[in-house]
Amino acid sequence: MVFSVSxxxxxxxxxxxxxxxxxxxxxxxxxxxxxxxQTVPLYERLxxxxxxxxxxxxxxxxxxxxxxxxxxxxxxxxxxKSGLTASEQLKRIFKETVPFYKQKDTxxxxxxxxxxxxxxxxxxxxDLADSDEKYVHHYFKNNILxxxxxxxxxxxxxxxHLANKSLNIVLSMEREGAESIGVIPVPQLLPNILYLPxxxxxxxxxxxxxxxYAQEIFxxxxxxxxxxxxxxxxxxxxxxxxxxxDDEDYRHHMKKILKKRKRLAxxxxxxxxxxxAELIDYLCERLNIKRYQVFLSESPLCMSYVFDLHSKFxxxxxxxITFPKFEPQPSSSINxxxxxxxxxxxxxxxxxxxxxxxxxFIRLLREAASDPTVMSIKITIYRLANQSDxxxxxxxxxxxxxxxxxxxxxxxxxxxxxxxxxxxxxxRAGCNVIYGFERYKVHSKICxxxxxxxxxVHYITQIGTGNYNEKxxxxxxxxxxxxxxxxxxxxxxxxxxxxAISNLDGQYDYLLVAPTNMKSTIxxxxxxxxxxxxxxxxSKITLKMNSLTDRQIITKLSEASCAGVKINLIIRGICCLxxxxxxxxxxxxxxxxxxRFLEHSRIFCFGEGKGMKMYISSADIMTRNMEKRVxxxxxxxxxxxxxxxxxxxxxxxxxxxxxxxxxSDRNYVKRxxxxxxxxxxxxxxxxxxxxxxxxxISRKTENMDSGLLRQAILKFxxxxxxx
Length: 723
Prior knowledge:
By secondary structure, the protein is α/β, with parallel strands linked by helices. 37% of the residues lie in helices and 21% in strands. The protein folds into 3 domains: 302 residues, 2-Layer Sandwich (polyphosphate kinase like); 171 residues, Endonuclease Chain A (Endonuclease, Chain A, 2-Layer Sandwich); 210 residues, 2-Layer Sandwich (Endonuclease, Chain A).
């Protein structure tokens, strides 16, 4: 294939920017590299392979699906950061995806070889001894065969619909000189793997069993070729683009959208076990895809089974091949013997997940549900855990005659069904449930508790960077501010009033709210640093986020760099800005941290010292977040909390273990400097959380010389200043 850049003129300078999708592929490559990192425990490496796979699945369903839709438009727009059309982006994506499969296969093979030392074996039917083969065959006959729905494709029977990401055995067959195709869908009700009896952990993927015994299913046919396939379909459905009657229930509409997702156009075909060229050509024709959209894998096409293996591990194996156990610690800012309402009314509290527990916020809701001074609780919800104490206490508040308003976003991608269920339950309980805006997702994370005490209204506001999800709070790094500030509270009250009346143009004194004033304030704050630099004053910008894609802000950051502003960017995933380009971005440094926990917090810092403006936010600096979503950024007004965040950012900026530095050639490299003490930011923050937790309930973890590590950080920072 020959790939070319569109000849359409691009309105922006693309010499220091890169394509969003290609940048994301590099992020997922960094995830896969964790699976190849010998310092990561063996089972955790296996999980990183599975995470890499699920990331790639979602990328193809959503981003590639969206590009596919754009490519169907005759005059599709050109990407303003790479100059590529949708079709050109797709071809680049397909090309750059190919080596990932070989890399994944090699890494998985190495991991599984090492797992043999711990008596953990992934097998195929043909690897089995006679006794084991008899066991598997008996299981096939009695447990699998009765629930199969095989199908023959010939002139009487059309090619079946292959559901998105479902596993299917496809066979080329012959009978009495007539050729036909056989399809065996792997039933979803079956377990992903079958464990073999014995003391060792031995298992076989279910699709492998069907693959090996396919002849017994089509016993009247001669099988010429067979393979395991999985089709990835476009799942980028935008509910706002779907027509629906004004009087149609919105939840009912979303349910119809979810059904539609299963039948959209194929964008990728994965094949395990190489097959004949004729069979692959046949599948391409039936699915209406090109050969470059076909990817061959030696690894299983679905690796979700990986997360269930640990249930079979012995305590010794768990110790040897998993991360040392870490539990979120009690916050040193909260006295467990005193009411949370009382404490946060006196001083702001910042919780840092997963290093600290979410429990103080849960306690706050529990107290608010029964506190006679509490009049109302208002909250925005994007994603919830399957089992949620947050919902429990919201319902309890209603039962205690509190006014409870929940702004539920039903369009949280791939969580739509869960959110519909929760919305229905909250409504049945008596909560006032609203669903946001037709064309704007509500992605903000804000909770407002309104109290009446001594005939005066008081507010307690919680604003965070992550979802109200007890499960992910133990896996994602997020910040959660709880404040009794009347200034913040009044803005929060205005926010919920505006949401209730569908007003996107509300005025706020302290909160930054997208699409109202967030982007303009960020640009204004960058401009302020530019003016400082031009005046010869110290100027600095530090931003932490998941993704940076907004063209206007990228251009403004380049302008700041040219003015001499020192800019540090901590960006886990997509970064469309290329640092280190002379006269464009030479004063910008970008790092990405991929580690044990998923970096998820968003922090915006402008300036240094006492004059620094600091915000925590639900928003990444992406055009969709700035202009097409309802997002909130909250200023950090408490000096102690501000310093806590600065210290955390400093540790991350000096990470030389998990951090990867983005180079001017658009590649990420591990930070050099082996002569320095290793600084693993996440590991350090775990240790600090344990050290600072109340002594009576703190837990031991890996030993780290905190003093030595702090010295190393100081030395590293000094070296950076000199450079």
